[in-house]
Specification:
By secondary structure, the protein is α/β, with parallel strands linked by helices. The protein is built from eleven helices and six strands. The protein has a four-stranded mixed beta sheet, covered by helices on one side. It has a two-stranded antiparallel sheet with strand order 3-4. The protein is globular.
């Protein structure tokens, strides 16, 4: 992918120098206290610790997995700890800034063609943990989009995770990740995500999960729409599409459940199967038409 020929976005916030640090309570626990109350959260913590003891895991690890405590000084082996400061991974920073800039240009044109104005999101680079408009989060949750502040959050070490743990290599695989999160921003601007989240509150868990899958697959399709635009402008190389499809396959719910050693449980899917993720990305990539991304009619 010729990302060096893309326009660099000015909407990148580098907060990497703010990350790290020792353990302690994470932002997630304060969100739960605000939502459930102190007594219920205390009962939840006791239950999580009890399950951890039965499973032979340390209580701190169990709480950290749920985002209830901040990351300790040592991270999982799959994460590579680099030097502190805002200047590390500068090539990756420049790449995501240019990919973001290209998504801005692509969606700006699409919105303008439909009589609308595209409001550009910000992309926040962080390390270990971050405070967003949606609350606190650790790098373990992966890249995410927060509709409350219209920002994409990314710990660049996820690209190492994508390569080493999931086997998804190449810069276009990484671009797919950024474009997918931008796809969630498009959904937010269109009002789709708000309607879905409102509807989910009224449904049983399995049906709510099914709506989450449709939302994620549409974001995959929107990422493909951007990829189509990049291809039309000669910014992709041979093999780039395969890199994105490989990444989509690697992070499908069924593939992740198999790798975790468990059974595949479709009712628990929240992002979609590997085949579905590949199919919807490819649909957007081949058509270049957001109108072909209506997963809710599928």
């Amino acid at each position: 992918m010729r990302w060096d020929e893309m326009r660099e976005s000015s909407n990148v916030e580098d907060r990497r120098s703010e990350g790290g640090g020792g353990g302690g309570l994470g932002g997630g626990i304060f969100m739960l206290i605000n939502f459930l109350g102190f007594k219920r959260v205390l009962v939840l913590i006791v239950a999580v610790i009890g399950i951890g003891v039965l499973m032979g895991k340390s209580p701190v690890d169990m709480l950290r997995m749920l985002g209830l405590v901040g990351p300790a000084g040592e991270r999982p082996a799959s994460y590579q700890q680099g030097p502190r400061g805002a200047t590390d991974n500068d090539q990756h920073k420049q790449m995501v800034a240019r990919i973001l800039g290209d998504t801005e240009d692509t969606w700006g044109r699409i919105f303008q063609q439909n009589g609308r104005t595209y409001q550009q999101p910000a992309l926040v680079l962080f390390r270990d943990q971050v405070r967003s408009g949606c609350g606190g989060a650790s790098a373990a949750v992966g890249p995410f989009y927060c509709p409350a502040d219209s920002k994409v959050y990314l710990d660049l070490s996820f690209f190492d995770e994508l390569h080493k743990r999931f086997g998804a290599q190449g810069d276009f695989a990484q671009a797919y990740v950024v474009a997918h999160e931008v796809g969630h921003h498009v959904q937010n601007l269109l009002g789709t995500s708000g309607k879905v989240h409102e509807r989910q509150q009224q449904l049983p868990k399995a049906q709510a999960n099914a709506l989450s899958v449709k939302l994620e697959l549409q974001a995959d399709c929107f990422a493909g729409v951007w990829g189509h635009s990049a291809q039309q402008r000669g910014l992709l190389d041979a093999g780039d599409l395969d890199e994105a499809l490989n990444a989509a396959h690697a992070i499908g719910d069924d593939t992740l459940q198999k790798h975790a050693g468990g059974a595949v449980v479709p009712d628990s899917f929240t992002h979609g199967s590997s085949d579905d993720r590949k199919r919807w990305f490819k649909r957007g990539f081949e058509s270049g038409d957001p109108g072909q991304c209506n997963t809710f009619k599928s």
